[in-house]
Amino acid sequence: TSDEQSEIFITVSEGKYHIVKKIMESLGHPVKYLKRVRIGNLKLDENLEVGEYRPLSNEEVEKLKSLVNLK
């Protein structure tokens, strides 16, 4: 095995259980670290620690509602 590391960005429109890890493994590139940076049109806050959260702004709530037609 190699100690080389690469960074890639993948967009998944429908998340299935560990799909990114499974795809990368099938290509011979096992995933050592995976980080979600966006859910729908909501970019996640990079300053939050693992397990930490913050309230959504009204604008963020409206954006999420629009994704599921709850306007």
Can you tell me about this structure?
The protein has 71 residues and is mainly alpha-helical. It has one domain (1-71). It contains 2 helices and 2 strands; from the N terminus they run αββα. It has helices spanning 19-26, 58-67; strands at 38-39, 42-43. A two-stranded antiparallel sheet has the order 1-2. The model has no long low-confidence stretch (mean pLDDT 86).
- How far apart are the first and last residues' alpha carbons, in Å? 51 Å
- State the shape: elongated
Classify the helix fraction into a percent range.
Answer: 25-40%
Order of SSEs: HEEH
Q: What kind of sheet is the major sheet? A: 2 strands, antiparallel
Radius of gyration: 16 Å
Strand content: 5-15%
Spans of at least 5 consecutive residues with low confidence: none
Work out the number of β strands: 2
Name the structural class.
Answer: mainly alpha
Total count of helical runs of at least 4 residues: 2
The overall average pLDDT, rounded, is 86
Number of separate structural domains: 1
- Spatial strand sequence of the major β-sheet: 1-2
Write a concise synopsis of the structure shown.
This protein has 71 residues and is mainly α.
Descriptors for this entry?
2 helices; two-stranded antiparallel ribbon; 2 strands; 25% helix; mainly alpha; 6% strand; 71 residues
What's the helix and strand layout?
Elements: H1 19-26, E1 38-39, E2 42-43, H2 58-67
Antiparallel strand pairs: 1-2
